DNA sequence: AACCCGTGGGG
DNA sequence: TCCCCAAGGGT
């Protein structure tokens, strides 16, 4: 029996999390009634590895300028990269632009409701497809992001952190925990995520204020510290990523073509600088011109 | 599967 | 200060 692995009956977990969410949820603009599926999708792209606080202002400007996929698709990809600003991982801007184009071409300009069609869009992976289907269309999907994985690892698994990569066991557990009614499942999904974001945080969880304190397997086990392989921190200083960031910052600030010399000054190592620029070009983030100039893609 | 991809804030 | 990590996706 699958549910026998749960220390707490699922319906109890549901009511606890839903009650907590209804009282403590942040009122984020992409959660309002008037938020369109496109607005939800834009938020999900921006929230991939970028904190809510930094996303908020960019999201608002973005939707004011491009309220529909067609509006974004009608502009050069470089405008999306520019408007992305300093959210980080600018390939997401490129993919969001490509997703908008695909939505116009394949789906008549409307964000598709079907999970498989969402998953087929550029930049939409397992998490984002489930998130859009759940949050925008109130469907029943397991939404497994870093917050949910951490909550389940602790509350059910009894460990401090989940594995580095999502496992089949996690997917199975998340599917088992889904409430049957789609609307309830959708609220459960966002509720667990919110709990992970506000209470069951990675660094210093506020277990004293956690609604799941009494049923938490990690608490029962005495909050044992993380055991497995170290969660590798990603170095940044001196990497190609840093160089790419500096190069792209120059191109974002300038509206027309940029001379090669303006790019050369951002990084002393010529080899690495060239490699980073080549990478940006091959990624489609930068367009080389014939006369030694560069610009954001058109 | 492991690695690459930006940026900034909080503990 | 320094380090961790933040609603991941693609290869």
From TrEMBL:
Domain HhH-GPD residue range list: 46-198
Sample GO molecular function, one term: adenine/guanine mispair binding
InterPro entries: DNA_glycosylase (IPR011257), Endonuclease-III-like_CS2 (IPR004036), Endonuclease3_FeS-loop_motif (IPR003651), HhH-GPD_domain (IPR003265), HhH_base_excis_C (IPR023170), HhH_motif (IPR000445), MIG/MutY (IPR044298)
Primary enzyme class: hydrolase
UniProt keywords, alphabetically: 4Fe-4S, DNA damage, DNA repair, Glycosidase, Hydrolase, Iron, Iron-sulfur, Metal-binding
Reaction equations catalysed: Hydrolyzes free adenine bases from 7,8-dihydro-8-oxoguanine:adenine mismatched double-stranded DNA, leaving an apurinic site
SMART domains: ENDO3c
Single Gene Ontology BP annotation: mismatch repair
Cofactor: [4Fe-4S] cluster
Keyword match Manganese: no
EC number: 3.2.2.31
Keyword DNA repair recorded: yes
Family: Belongs to the Nth/MutY family.
Full protein name: Adenine DNA glycosylase
Organism for this UniProt entry: Streptomyces tateyamensis
């Amino acid at each position: 029996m699958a549910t026998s692995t749960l220390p707490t009956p699922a319906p109890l977990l549901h009511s606890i999390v839903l009650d907590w969410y209804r009282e403590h949820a942040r009122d984020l603009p992409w959660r309002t009634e008037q938020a369109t599926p496109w607005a939800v999708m834009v938020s999900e792209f921006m929230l991939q590895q970028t904190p809510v606080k930094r996303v908020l202002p960019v999201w608002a400007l973005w939707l004011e300028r491009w309220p529909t996929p067609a509006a974004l698709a009608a502009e050069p990809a470089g405008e999306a990269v520019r408007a992305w600003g300093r959210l980080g991982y600018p390939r997401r801007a490129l993919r969001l632009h490509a997703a908008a184009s695909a939505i116009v071409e394949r789906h008549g300009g409307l964000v598709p409701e079907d999970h498989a069609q969402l998953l087929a869009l550029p930049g939409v992976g397992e998490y984002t497809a489930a998130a859009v289907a759940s949050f925008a269309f109130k469907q029943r999907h397991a939404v497994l992001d870093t917050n949910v994985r951490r909550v389940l690892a602790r509350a059910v698994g009894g460990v401090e952190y989940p594995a580095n990569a999502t496992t089949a066991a996690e997917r199975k557990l998340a599917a088992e925990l889904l409430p049957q009614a789609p609307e309830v499942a959708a609220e459960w999904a966002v509720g667990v995520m919110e709990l992970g974001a506000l209470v069951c945080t990675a660094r210093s969880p506020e277990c004293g204020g956690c609604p799941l304190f009494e049923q938490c397997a990690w608490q029962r086990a005495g909050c044992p510290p993380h055991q497995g392989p170290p969660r590798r921190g990603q170095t940044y200083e001196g990497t190609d990523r840093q160089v790419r960031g500096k190069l792209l910052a120059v191109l974002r600030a300038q509206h027309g073509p940029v001379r090669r010399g303006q790019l050369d000054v951002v990084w002393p190592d010529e080899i690495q600088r060239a490699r980073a620029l080549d990478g940006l070009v091959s990624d489609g983030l930068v367009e080389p011109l014939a006369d030694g100039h560069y610009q954001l893609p058109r």
